[in-house]
Amino acid sequence: MINGDEELMIKMDKLLSDFVKQQRMKLPGSEYIPCYRVETS
Known about the structure:
This protein is of the alpha+beta class.
């Protein structure tokens, strides 16, 4: 779990989601399954 300031966590979630969309978070040919959950404090 990634926990912190709400405004920062919203930005962090968007950044990580964009990385997934750009296929930066997985090996070629495999599906990425997040090992984290963004939570606001």
